[in-house]
Amino acid sequence: MNHRLISRKKAAASGVGGQSPLLARLLPNEPCMVNNKAQAALTERYLLPCLAEVAAFFLALRHQVDPALYQQRPVKLGKPYPLGQCLEITRAVQRLLPDAGVATAGFSGAALAGAHAYRAFRKAGGSTRQVWGDLRGEFFQNAFQVGTLYVDVANDTVTPTKPKVEILPFAESALIPIADFKHFKRIAERYWQARIFPNHILPELAPTCPFIHVSPGGKVQVAEATGYMVAMAQASAFRASEEVLCDTPVPDDVFAHVRLHLAGTPWALPRSAEEGKAAALLDGTVFTLPLADTGPLSRGTIRLDPALGLFGMLVSNEQGFFAEVENREALSMAIDRAALAEGFSLGGWQPSTRIVPVGLPGNPVSPGERWASLSIDQRRDRARQQVVDWQRRTGQAPRVRLWVPEGPGSDVLVRALSLDLATIGVELRRVQFPQGADLVMIDRVARYPSARWFLNQFNCELLRGPCSPEADELVTQSLRPEPGEGSATLLAEAEGALIAREVYIPLGAPVRWSLVRSGLEGFSENSWSRHPIYALAGVEAW
């Protein structure tokens, strides 16, 4: 799948983790000093004079969480508690911090004094952040950045003989941000003893999760989908992902092993690692588009194709509300197609109310867009009246069940469509499977520039819902027109027959995008979303 990050420079490996000047804010849990002067002053005033007491306070919190955590997971990845559970321990302690509203009743002596000091520090504006990164080039570690102090409440999760709590100046901790996916891989292979490969198996996840992990025991994971790693991918315009996805495809034996593990899941799996590599870099859809950034910082990496094809909702039910053609038309009239692009920051996207695109090359008979003389408000007024009439006659509330593929773009799309249909009194519900849906989202790039391709997608032999035998016959006739008839005229009549049946609610042109940097030789945006990399990989794109 084609997803690119918006470009973040590598975090500086010197000091306490520098950050790119492109970033307006830190990544989630990024180890980096913020407002260093002020935090240093607060740390010196409230925490340093009683550092032993502060350590006792955090140790007391750790003692509170240990019994419950041990009960929940006495063993993780074959290792006894607390090994490998720094995240679980850190989060549990975070929930107990006094400023989170938890009392320190029962504390006494040094622990109570440390609690008072910590509370005073926080009340004065002291900062506490959970952070995560590369600790001394050896392993990943979760900890707290408290003012200018490094506070590790899970210090024994790699070496159990170490003290449970470690506190030292953050600048001396050697905890640095993960700079890119190659940095992540280097630490992960060392720390987890896992084999890590480019994600050429689940291309839909590849932009934000570009690795597949295989543990020594053969367990398969896509394990880097943390807030930090996803944000890093997006903050690099997906260049960080591209760097590792361009590596040599996964070995055949690993591909077969992982694919076997994923059999039966709802994911579309490639037939080979080479095919998966091409899919990971090319042919992204609107359903995954929010994973990319289409703004100015991503230019040169996110490449959008001016694709021709079908993008809309296929009617798959002729019962209830959908039994009446006028109701199906009302749904189509209610949609503000031009506004759909706003949710995706898409410039130049072509909305459409027709099956065959207006102005299709080589199509001399090209009717204009439907309802062109009506404003969106006028269309909705007309559609609303139709819905009200149906409700009055049937006594039922109109509800529409829609299936769309999984993906963040789908969430954006469903929200927009829900609001559109609500304007005419129709409730939109998203369903998990196409079976049983009233509307099924389709997203197809045309294989050739002819009205015939578009119309053939609605042949009665292919559809579960309403269709038009008349349209099918007209398309067939267009292949051998009678004297005096023109193929283009017959195809236009066929489209008219399909529209009269309202078998499909068009939205516009399909969206296709790729993670390809500017300057790459041989890549050119095109209407068919067809690229040389497919051929180079030995993959048939369609």
What does the model show?
The structure is a single chain. This protein is of the alpha+beta class. The chain has three domains: 1-10 and 177-297 and 526-542, no CATH class; 36-132 and 145-174, no CATH class; 309-510, Roll (Dipeptide-binding Protein, domain 3). Helix content is 35%, strand content 14%. The chain has helices at residues 36-47, 51-72, 86-96, 109-123, 181-192, 227-235, 239-245, 252-262, 273-281, 325-334, 337-340, 376-394, 408-422, 451-456, 469-478, 487-501, 532-536; strands spanning 75-76, 79-80, 128-135, 139-146, 149-152, 166-169, 175-176, 195-198, 211-214, 220-221, 302-305, 309-315, 399-403, 427-430, 439-445, 504-508, 512-515. The strands form five sheets. Strands 6-5-4-3-7 form a five-stranded antiparallel β-sheet. Strand 9 (211-214) and strand 10 (220-221) form a beta hairpin. The longest helix is centred in the first third of the chain and has 22 residues, at 51-72. It is elongated, with a radius of gyration of 29 Å.
List keywords for this structure.
disordered C terminus, 17 strands, five-stranded antiparallel sheet, 17 helices, 14% strand, 542 residues, alpha+beta, disordered N terminus
For the largest beta-sheet, the strand count, sense and barrel status come to: 5 strands, antiparallel
Task: Determine the N-to-C terminus distance.
Answer: 14 Å
Strand order of the largest sheet: 6-5-4-3-7
CATH fold title of the largest domain: Dipeptide-binding Protein, domain 3
Q: Report the radius of gyration as a whole number of Å.
A: 29 Å
Work out the number of β strands: 17
